[in-house]
Write a structure and sequence with these properties.
The protein has 124 residues and is an alpha+beta fold. 15% of the residues lie in helices and 29% in strands. It contains 2 helices and 7 strands; from the N terminus they run βββαβαβββ. It has helices spanning 34-42, 64-73, and strands at residues 9-14, 18-22, 29-32, 57-60, 80-84, 90-95, 101-106. The strands form 2 sheets. A 4-stranded mixed beta sheet has the order 4-7-6-5, sandwiched between helices. β1 and β2 (18-22) form a beta hairpin. The relative contact order is 0.14.
């Protein structure tokens, strides 16, 4: 659907459960099924019915631990505390006021400079 119908580039696939899509101006855009989201967030694929239908939004932040602490200070329960995911992201997740799953992530590979930079004479 995302590749064939919407014309988006699929940068990575992790089985049938998760894919990373390329979107201009977006550091990281991941799509995953509800069962995988339930396993990652609530510890079991059996809780897929607790993952809201429609969409899950995950936001890139500078520091997941600081974000989790700020959320807790504002009274939010965090069902998935900050942790390192097997694919390298650090994440935490909460349920938004509307009931959707809202994630916060540090994505190391999205922050790498891909072109070597050299100082010019004007920078010296």
């Amino acid at each position: 659907f995302y590749r064939d119908t919407l014309g988006l580039e699929v940068k990575e696939r992790h089985g049938d459960d998760y894919a990373v899509l390329s979107l201009p101006g977006v550091l990281h855009f991941g799509v995953w099924d509800r069962a995988h989201a339930a396993e990652s967030t609530l510890g079991s694929r059996d809780h897929a019915d607790r993952i809201p239908l429609g969409f899950t939004l995950e936001l890139e932040v500078d520091n997941v631990q600081d974000t989790a602490e700020q959320l807790q200070q504002h009274g939010w329960e965090i069902p998935q505390a900050p942790r390192q995911e097997p694919w390298g992201q650090k994440t935490c997740r909460v349920f938004s006021p509307g009931g959707s799953l809202l994630g916060f992530a540090e994505t190391p590979w999205a922050r790498k400079i891909t072109k070597e930079l050299e100082a010019g004479e004007e920078d010296a």
